[in-house]
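Renewal narrative, Specific Aim 1. Our central claim is that a sequence can be written position by position from structural information alone. The example that follows is taken directly from our test logs and has not been curated for this report. It begins with the structure tokens describing the chain, in the order in which they were read.
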């Protein structure tokens, strides 16, 4: 995906275009409504040759109602009927923003990005599609280059983009409001002493070939040990074949620990660099990772709080279909563990921790 001319729609929010070169022109017309619900949206689009040029971006506002603060925008795809961009906002209500993957076709494409919130997405209407707050809410820090991001603010359950991979019945995955990096919510995963996997999985931003960048804020709290000390091998972030559950023998693991120390692991051959850094616990930390050369020979890089920790180069990277974030430990122990996840994002370039 090529990012061209992000256009600011709300403080801290930008719109990422699809694969076409799309020019976003200045916003002008404004409509307002005193009513209790969403205001109207003005939009237009035109086509010239193979690319769509966006000309007018409308906006609407309301002093109250049930939509809630947020912005929704869409960009046209490769379409003779053109695309449209729109923005809607409200000073009250329960609405939030959403982000879903873009698409293209005769009706135009659509990428939606909102300001986050506690309810459903803001009002939007476009031939390209409509927002699904269950797919991802954008979060408080959704990067402009993200194909998909989620701050887990849209409700008390995971959105439809996610699946749960839990091989231990006693382990739990829940949206909680007791701790968060931003907004109100985060994902809380708990682990018993039983060996096994507990992950949340998504595949919206994973590419079959090429390069993918990911980012997540993680609060590792306690670790389920092996009865002696830190488990010899724990997996926290893994790219794997689509639909795989349980232990993967063909995973790309940008974040592991080997006897408590941060490491990269690619399987096969089940090796990778091990740092001298013990995974920090009891605080939020931003982890970023890059997987390049997918489906061939490539590299894996890991960053924590913006600082490079390790890189594994010249290694075979198997075809992958999804990313999963969570916890897998290989040896039964005596203690339980837990961690929190927030502000996940994935895209074709580095996303940053802001």
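The sequence written for that structure reads:
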């Amino acid at each position: 995906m090529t990012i061209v001319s992000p256009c600011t729609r709300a403080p801290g929010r930008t719109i990422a275009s699809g694969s076409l070169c799309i020019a976003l022109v200045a916003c002008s017309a404004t409509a307002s409504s005193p009513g209790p619900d969403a205001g109207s949206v003005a939009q237009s689009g035109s086509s010239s040759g193979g690319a769509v040029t966006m000309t007018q971006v409308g906006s609407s506002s309301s002093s109250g109602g049930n939509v809630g603060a947020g912005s929704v925008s869409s960009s046209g795809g490769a379409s003779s009927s053109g695309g449209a961009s729109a923005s809607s906002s409200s000073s009250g209500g329960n609405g939030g923003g959403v982000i879903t993957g873009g698409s293209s076709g005769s009706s135009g494409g659509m990428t939606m990005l909102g300001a986050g919130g506690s309810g459903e997405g803001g009002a939007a209407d476009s031939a390209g599609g409509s927002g699904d707050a269950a797919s991802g809410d954008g979060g408080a820090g959704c990067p402009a280059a993200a194909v998909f991001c989620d701050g887990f603010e849209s409700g008390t359950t995971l959105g439809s983009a996610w699946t749960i991979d839990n091989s231990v019945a006693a382990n739990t995955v829940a949206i909680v409001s007791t701790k968060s990096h931003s907004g109100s919510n985060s994902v809380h995963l708990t682990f018993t002493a039983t060996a096994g996997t507990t992950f949340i999985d998504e595949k919206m931003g994973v590419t079959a070939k090429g390069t993918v960048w990911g980012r997540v804020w993680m609060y590792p709290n306690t670790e389920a040990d092996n009865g002696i000390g830190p488990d010899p091998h724990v997996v926290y972030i893994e790219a794997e074949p689509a639909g795989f559950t349980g232990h993967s023998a063909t995973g790309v693991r940008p974040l592991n620990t080997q006897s408590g120390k941060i490491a990269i692991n690619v399987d096969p051959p089940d090796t990778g660099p091990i740092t001298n850094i013990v995974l920090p616990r009891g605080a939020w930390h931003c982890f970023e990772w890059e997987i390049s050369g997918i489906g061939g020979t490539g590299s894996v890089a890991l960053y924590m709080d913006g600082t490079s920790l390790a890189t594994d180069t010249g290694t075979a990277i198997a075809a992958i279909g999804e990313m999963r974030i969570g916890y897998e430990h290989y040896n039964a122990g005596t203690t339980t563990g837990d961690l929190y996840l927030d502000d996940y994002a994935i895209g074709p370039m580095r996303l940053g921790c802001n």
